[in-house]
């Protein structure tokens, strides 16, 4: 083995390379994605300690009245045990992994990507990055359509660092901000904010923040003190889909 080839490989020159090819780029939370990891050996034989796959997104953190964009890890999978890739050898490893039910949707500025990396001791770990489109599953879509049918328009959707009382598995939540543009709530509400807390593809808890429009002097003071906002939690499941609009409307009516 050439000394120089070994040195170059340790800094990534002439080392093994990885390329992940997914069967599809559009997926809903809770669904499985299949594909293949292609590994191309470099100029020397190398021991691959593991192949790992990580799902990432970005979220907003706020410190000292300044906002920062942070990379968050949604999940990580180990795909293989240690093996050797010979010089110029080509390997294909079939993969299958499930997108976690709490993966954020790629709406607005939210992006989700899959990073595949090779763990090689004493060397720069090669990696590959593939963006995926995460769309609502059947239950999420029913909820979002139900809110839209009540006269609300989605104004913004962002992943933001969650306060500790709202944290589950991840340090952030995806918040959907709606404004009433027609129907019963136009003129009655300022906005509606919604956060999904899925427990599975067929069941979830929803946090709904109802922001009432100020009416009269007392309401103006309440708005100034942010006392005009009401947070309510409720559960929905796939069994609720046929009447999801009515269920959401009932919750809003209690607090608007």
Topology:
Blueprint: H1 3-10, E1 17-22, E2 26-27, E3 32-40, E4 46-48, E5 50-63, E6 66-78, E7 83-85, E8 90-98, E9 112-119, E10 127-134, H2 138-149, E11 152-161, E12 172-180, E13 189-200, E14 203-212, H3 216-224, E15 229-237, H4 244-255
Parallel strand pairs: 2-10
Antiparallel strand pairs: 1-3, 3-8, 4-7, 5-6, 5-9, 9-10, 11-12, 12-13, 13-14, 14-15
Helix pairs in contact: 2-4
Question: What does it look like?
Answer:
This is Sporulation protein. InterPro entries: Spore_0_M. Pfam families: Spo0M. The chain is of the alpha+beta class. It folds into 2 domains: 10-134, Sandwich (Immunoglobulin-like); 138-255, no CATH class. The chain is 16% helix and 49% strand. The chain has a 5-stranded mixed sheet, with no helix packed on it. Strands 11-12-13-14-15 form a 5-stranded antiparallel sheet, covered by helices on one side. The model is unreliable at 1-14 and 214-228 (pLDDT under 50).
